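ligand=calcium ion
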Amino acid sequence: MKILIVEDERRVGQFIERALQEQSHATQLVSTCRDARDALAASACDAIILDLGLPDGDGLDLLQEWRRAGFNEPVLILSARDAVADRIRGLNLGADDYLPKPFSIEELLARIRSLVRRHAGTKQTVLTHGTVRLDLLARTATSGSKPVELTSRELALLELFLQNPGRVLTRTLIAEKVWEASYELETNLIDVYVRRLRQKFDHEGGGLAIKTVRGVGYQLT
Ligand code: CA
């Protein structure tokens, strides 16, 4: 599991990072809104620990952006702003939990564990988008009423798109999630698979509208 830590107090960030790594989590520590945006665009993560007071902006704005863009993994706000109004605002904007500073590292770890567990339990097993339907348990896909035969890789790619509608998925992120490759895929494999998905769902209108975002990746619109 990979956790993104957005924290500008270096000491605090490194402390959290070490604690998470001891629990065998992969981590990435960033200290500005800008780096946080880049980090999430470049690679997938399973949870975010988010400070609010950041040198180049407010963590709440980041949270709002991410939720609007369809990012739905758990976000825990870790902030010195601990008034009830702040907490409510954070939760309303889509945070899953709110831990005031100063905090106990044990409590932070426990909360992250519980968030991730809860989130895994609520993962949808049927994903839909327009006329496209994907049943993750049966591992079957349909377009309208017609079944669509997919290989397991195509299925994984379709799942990634359906879980992130509207979000621009970078090639790196797709490679990581679908091919479990953290390196750049050497061939144009991703393009080939996207083209196949488009073709397989391209009948009777509707179809699967995957837009090419030049130089970046793809977006299900
Ligand atoms: Ca701060």
